Amino acid sequence: MKTSSYRFFILSLLVPALLSSCSPSSTPSAESVPSKQVQSGEKTALAGQGQYLSMTYTEYVNGKNTDKGMVMRVMTYDLSSKKMTKLADVPYTSQYPLSLVSLPDHKIYYSADVDDKGDQLFSYDLNSKKTEQLSDNLFAINRIVPTTPEGPLILAAVKKGERTLKTIFYNKSTHTMQFLHDENQDMNTWSVSYNSSKNATYISQFSENGRDKQRDIATKKQSTMLPPDYKVTEINNATKQERSVITLKNEQILSMSSSNDQLLLVTARFINHGNPEYSLVDIATGKRTKLELPISSRSFIYMSPDGKGIYYLGSASQKNQEEGRGVYYYDFTSKIQTPIFIQEEGFINNFMLLNK
């Protein structure tokens, strides 16, 4: 696993203690993977109507044997058929294990190290089985978000030689990147969400100077650190016109997703301390409504397409966030938490709810 002075950019770090051994029953069967080669798995369902979950699950190549390194098991879960499919094993060489399955594109997008000089964006074609490097000017990638088959990928990533997480529109046809507010070396883009009903992208950002100020205050007072302000901005994908949606005073946005006319936020009032809080924000007005949810999740929460529940990465226990950690569906009416995929001795790094 790579090390870097820029580790604080990465959304979450893989904890070695959680990966001391891996059970072959934790995922659909997988074979050994060469260190720099993607190993394809089962064929995915054809793109079409409906939704699915794209999931990144990290394991050692040979279970408990650490000699051959680790892989990202790239999987999908179809919401209609309720079928979990392993599509490929991608070598884990990046600072943060990150992958995304785009069924409309018939591709897996992921981050990988290049010559130990930083992480770049790659794609793996599910039809041709070919891997392609898509960037050469990045250092770390925190988010990869698809839009439409003709539309761009939206990244939250750090450029080579810089420190801040930028919002990036990657054009899949021309293989070019548009860095929004490229001159700004203070604002960090933390969360990214695409809303298909509005053809708009929503980003949450915070000031690096503001974060440093709060850290200095906490150090002097020997107190728990407060977050800097976080703001949510709407970006029209066609015009790139921006509109402010909401600003949270000294409250951290841990995770954000959007659907139809609302945002679903996971927030915290202290850095690395206290329980997360959940709320809905009306996109048009910025009005915020608190949600009382009997779940434990600090990231990756999505409203179901019918609005009757949520998919989340976390635990069914509010007391222990690591107990039964996995992806669940929580039904608002029945109050039942249904496990979709529970990690055993590997680690679920991230997942995303997407349209086919």
Q: Can you give a write-up of this model?
A:
- Mean pLDDT is 87; it is low at 1-35 and 42-47.
- The strands form six sheets. Strands 1-4-3-2-25 form a five-stranded antiparallel β-sheet, with no helix packed on it.
- It is mainly beta and 356 residues long.
- The protein has one helix spanning 208-221, and strands spanning 39-40, 51-62, 65-78, 84-91, 99-102, 107-113, 119-125, 131-133, 138-145, 153-159, 165-171, 176-179, 187-195, 200-207, 230-236, 242-248, 252-259, 262-268, 277-282, 288-291, 296-303, 309-315, 326-331, 337-342, 347-355.
- The protein has one domain (7-355): 6 Propeller (Neuraminidase).
- Residues 1-26 form the signal peptide.
- This is Lipoprotein.
- It comes from Paenibacillus peoriae.
- Keywords: Signal.
Salient structural properties:
globular; single chain; Neuraminidase; mainly beta; five-stranded antiparallel beta sheet; about 350 residues; 25 strands; four-stranded antiparallel beta sheet; about 5% helix; disordered N terminus
Provide the fold topology.
Elements: E1 39-40, E2 51-62, E3 65-78, E4 84-91, E5 99-102, E6 107-113, E7 119-125, E8 131-133, E9 138-145, E10 153-159, E11 165-171, E12 176-179, E13 187-195, E14 200-207, H1 208-221, E15 230-236, E16 242-248, E17 252-259, E18 262-268, E19 277-282, E20 288-291, E21 296-303, E22 309-315, E23 326-331, E24 337-342, E25 347-355
- Strand and helix order: EEEEEEEEEEEEEEHEEEEEEEEEEE
CATH class: Mainly Beta
Q: Roughly what is the average pLDDT, rounded to an integer?
A: 87
How many domains, in number, for the residues? 1
